[in-house]
Amino acid sequence: MEHNMFIHILFMLVIAIVSIALLGRLGLPAILAYLLTGVISGPSGLHWFTQQQVHFVAELGVVLLMFTLGLEFSVPRLWSMRRTVFGLGSAQVIVTTFIAGGIAYLLGQNFVAAVVIGSAIALSSTAIVLKLMNEQGWLRRRHGELSISVLLFQDLAVVPMLILLPLLASDGTPMSLNGILYGLLTGILAFIGLMSFGKWVLPRIFDEVARSRSNELFVLSTLVVALVTGAFTQWLGLSMALGAFIAGMLLGESQYRRQLEADIRPFRDLLMGLFFISIGMLLDFNLVLLYWWQILLTLIAVVVLKIVIVYGLLQLAGEHARVALSTAISLGQVGEFSFVLLALAVNYQLLDKEVSTILVAVAVISMSFSPWLIRHSVDIAKRFKGGKPSQEMAEQTVVLPTSEDDDFVVILGYGRVGQTIARFLKTEAINYIVLDLDPTRVTESRAAGEPVYFGDACKMGILKRVGIRQASMVVVTFAEERQTEEALALSRKLAPDAKILVRTRDDSNLTELKEAGATQVIPESLEGSLMLVSQVLYKCGVPLPRIIKRLESERRNHYQYLHGFFSGTETDFTLDLLHAVSLSTSASSVGKKVADIPWSQLDVELRAVRRKGAEIEPAPDDWVLRRNDILMLVGKPRSIEKAEDYLLQG
C-alpha cells in the first residue's frame, strides 16, 4: 500500500512537471498546470488521491502564501497610494461583492453562500496581473498603477474574509450575530497581542538567529514563526492563514524582510503547488459536463460584470476612458485567493459542492485566457475608446522602492569598502541598494536611513527581490572568495546587461572572475600599489595626465606590470613570479628566434630581454637570442623552473 502511494506521488509530480512545461510554452500560468494535475490525479481522473488526503499538507501552502503576503505589506507604500488603494480598491471589492452576492441570493443561494460567492468573484489574480504587467513594462503607467492599487486592497480584504469564514459556521451550523461579533473581537485582540509580541520579541529572536550566521537556523526559525502564529490563531477559532499573515506583516518592516521571503519561497511554491492540486481534485468532471452551459454563462457574466464595475468606478473618479477600460480588462479574471475562499467554504460546509465546482471551473477558465486579455488590454481599449490619454495619465508612476528605479546600483556587502562606495554614490545622487549579512551593521545603517537590507547575496531569490534585473551596475565587495564567485555567477545570470565590478584581495583568480562574467576586477593589493605609484611619479614631477594614462593602461592590460615579482625566502607557489634567466654560450636557445620558443607550452610569459644594459620590452618575434642575454620570465614557480631548463638544456 505504501509502495503504491509512493509510485502515485511520483507519477503526480511527473504530470505536474510536464504540465508546467507544456502550458508555459503556451504562455499560461503554472497555477493551471497544478489544477490540471489535480484533475488527473483526483477522483475525476485516475483516483490516486482524494482531496482530503492532500488537504492538510496543502493548507500549509496557504499559510506560507499569507506569510509572504504579510511581508509585502508595506505601510509607507500603502500610505503613498492611499487614495487609489482605499478609495478605488475598497469600492471595487464592496460593489462587486454586493452585486455578485445579490445575484447569487436571487438565484436561490442562502445569505452566507451568497457572501462567499460575492467575495470570491470580487478577487482578481495578483500573481498573473503583476507578472504580465512587469513583462510588458506597464507597472509605471497609469493603468498599471490603478491595477496595483486594486490588487493591494483585494489582498488586504482577504484577511477579514479569512476571519469571517470559520465564524460563519460551526459544525455546519451558522453562528448567530453575537457569535460573529464575539469572533471578530477575538480576532482583533489576537491581532493586538501578536503585534505586541512581534514588536518586542520577534526582532530580538531574529537578531540572535542572524548572528549565528547559520542559514539552516534562519530558514527553520522562519518556518516555525509562520506556523506557530498560524497555530495560535487556529487555537482561537480563527484561520491559520490569518496568523501567518500577521507574522509576515510584523517582519515586513524589518531588515530581514528580503531574506525571509527568499528563504520561504521554495517551501511556499511547493506547498502552494500541492494546494492548487488539491483544488483541481475538487473538480468533478461529471458535474462540469452536467453544468457546462451554466459554467459558460457564469464565466461570461463574471468577466463582464467585473470589467463593467471597474470601468464605471474609474469613470466616476474622472479617469480617462482608455485608461479605465485597459485597467478593467486587466482585472477581469478570478484570482488565486478565490480558490482559498472556496476551499475553506466547502470545508466549513458553507457552500454546496456543485456550486463550488462551477465557480472553480469559472476561475480556471478565466485565468486561462487572462494572459491574452492583459497583453492586449491597451489595444482593446484603444479600439473601443479613441483618442489619446493625457501624458500625465499615461505616464504617471507608482511610488516604488529604490530598487525599481530605472538606473541604480546594487552593492553586495556593506563593510568598509561597500560603505565608502555608498557614500560617494550618495554625493552624486545615484540611487543604490545594499545587501549585507551582519545584523548589527544592517540595524545601525537602517537607523541612519540607509537602503541596506539583511540578505544572502548568494541566493537567487534575494537578488531578485532587490531588483537586480533593473540594476545598471552591481558591485561585489566580499572578501571571501567563495562568496564572491557565487554572487558573481548569480548576478551575471540575473542581470546579463549590467556592469559588474568585483573587489578581490589580490590577482590570484583575476582571469577566472573575468571569465565568470565580471566587467572589471579590482584587486586591492594591486590598486593600492597603483595609487602609491601615482603619488611617487607625481612627486617626481611626472605630469598628471601622463600618470592617469599609464594607470588606465595598466588596468586595461589586466595589471601587466603588477604581475610577477622576484621571490623572497618564502615563496607563494600560487602566485606568478618574475625570474631572470641568463643565457650562457652553451645554452640551447642561443641563435633561436623568440617565436621559435614554445612559450604557451612552457606556460610562461617573456616579459622582456636585456642586452648590454638595454631592455627590450616586449621583444619582437624575430628577435634572435644571443649569449649573455638576460630573459625576464613571468609564471608559476614550477613553470619557471621547467622553462629555464628548456632554455638552457633544450
Automatic annotation (TrEMBL):
Signal peptide: none
Localisation per UniProt entry: Membrane
Keywords, ordered alphabetically: Antiport, Ion transport, Membrane, Potassium, Potassium transport, Transmembrane, Transmembrane helix, Transport
Domain RCK N-terminal: 406-523
Listed SUPFAM superfamilies: NAD(P)-binding Rossmann-fold domains, TrkA C-terminal domain-like
Transmembrane segments: 6-24, 56-73, 85-105, 111-134, 146-168, 180-202, 214-232, 268-285, 291-314, 323-349, 355-374
RCK C-terminal domain: residues covered: 565-649
Membrane-topology annotation of the record: Multi-pass membrane protein
Pfam family, one: TrkA_N
Lineage top rank: taxon: Bacteria
Family annotation (PANTHER family): K(+) EFFLUX ANTIPORTER 3, CHLOROPLASTIC
Family to which this protein belongs: Belongs to the monovalent cation:proton antiporter 2 (CPA2) transporter (TC 2.A.37) family.
Protein name: Monovalent cation:proton antiporter-2 (CPA2) family protein
Organism: Shewanella subflava
